[in-house]
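so ive been stuck on this for like two days lol. basically i have the seq below and the ligand is pyridoxal-5'-phosphate, smiles is in there too. i just want the complex predicted, nothing fancy, no docking runs or whatever. if the output looks off dont worry ill sanity check it later, just need somthing to start from for the group meeting slides
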Amino acid sequence: MSPTAFPAAETATAPAPAVDPGPELDGGDFTLPEGGLDDDRRLRALDAVDEYLTRKRKHLVGYQATQDMQGTALDLARFMPNNINNLGDPFQSGGYKPNTKVVERAVLDYYAKLWHAERPHDPADPESYWGYMLSMGSTEGNMYALWNARDYLSGKALIQPPTAPFDAVRYVKADPDRRNPNAHHPVAFYSEDTHYSFAKAVAVLGVETFHAVGLEKYADECPLVDPVTGLRTWPTEVPSRPGPSGLSWDGPGEIDVDALAVLVEFFAAKGHPVFVNLNLGSTFKGAHDDVRAVCERLLPIFERHGLVQREVVYGSCPQTGRPLVDVRRGFWIHVDGALGAGYAPFLRLAAEDPEGYGWTPEAELPEFDFGCGCPPPDTARWTWSPRSR
Ligand SMILES: Cc1ncc(COP(=O)(O)O)c(C=O)c1O
């Protein structure tokens, strides 16, 4: 609804009285004695939690999670007696039968269609989508993507076809590139508006950020000037666009594409593969990075530095002894779509029918699907997968 749709007189209502938030939960009610809680205390504890959550739900001003769970809760409660576990690949039935993988696949396919990913999933077609429903949340989705990106960009072969019975999935390291010592040393870029879980994922997976690599290897060569100090010090994250103050705190929350391009150019010129995380719905400002504009801006940089197609040698074929060579990209663009990727396509669909939906967008709409960005290389042996939530 447009904010201009209300007549001015109706908007000038008296402020609502403040609501007493009530007490917080008392930790003493939940202290577990050695023998556990007896039935009375356990019921009292559950009642206290119930009262507290109901009260908080009613007065929550906002957070990026729905509190309207009633219908869903009643629908789904009947499945509680089952120990459902969709373990493993959703596209393989598996031996644990109390699963709902058929439902999971239907949801995945719905989003693959919405985001214009190549579908249906086909194990024989590495360009077709793959994905799974996260059990944890976006932290897990980002970690999964980052893990794949790290291995891909550092030249590992993900899966060797089994050569003998019981031969497990093996990770194979790339042979060193004698002409470029940085060829398998990826560098991660993400903006200062990126969710803090991303920095944790980077640390857990041992992926190095441009800040860490810059400090360690190129301490005096930072191509950006800090707007506050005027010094060329490596920022910890890619700056976001500045606001009226000239700094980013009052800016829109979008990544500063100029700054990103300068940083990426610097590391690409040093021979590093590049991992870029973009946000579609940043946590605190709900900002959308312009995925298409970033891809269009970075593609010439990747072309200039041989990152669109590069050969990675990762050992030799056990049968023929010939080198195993992949032609891969030297870059990976990830979109953390935790808050926006789910609804961005619907905004665009609604905008196509302004009369039907009674809504005309007041700003340019965010774009998110697998059609925007760069084409995959011809001979990639890697799956391109929807990894956002
Ligand atoms: C943009 C963004 N990415 C990642 C996360 C982490 O998601 P989760 O808490 O579901 O793991 C959040 C959580 O709010 C987020 O807003």
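The chain has a mean pLDDT of 86. The CA atoms of residues 59 and 151 lie 45 Å apart.
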